Amino acid sequence: MVELLDALHLPLVNRFYKSCRYSAKAGRGEQVFVLREKGAIKAALRLVPKPDSFRFLRSMCVAPECRRQGLGLRLLQEIETDLDRSPLYCFPFDHLQSFYETIGFEMRSPDDVPAFIRDPFNAYVRQGKKILSMTRQAA
User: Fold this and answer.
1) CATH fold for domain 2-136
2) Is 30 helix (H, G, I), strand (E, B) or coil?
3) Which among 14, 23, 37, 38 is most buried, taking Cβ atoms within 10 Å?
């Protein structure tokens, strides 16, 4: 079951991220979606508002024991209506390029995006992160 968490339940997803060794923390003002099986969170992601009606897909995570079973794709497909509401950016790890392309993201040069996306991207790359700059247009 996929659900949008309310602010009261954000600590649940933060515990999930921590159990997956993610340093992510969900905050108020973000849309946080989770996929549960038998009551337990198995996958989560955050849609973070950005200037000019853009949003940023962050902290997409599937529990390690559930990876490569299609849960990430299922989560994204079940919230596709929400994804289509506004243009999205994301910085996936480079080995996930084809996965993100299957759900409508396209490679974007960091030089062709607003500074509020380009600057953090460049900072992550300087830290040695092997990430991509990708976008998905609104429907």
Assistant:
1) Aminopeptidase (3.40.630)
2) coil
3) 14
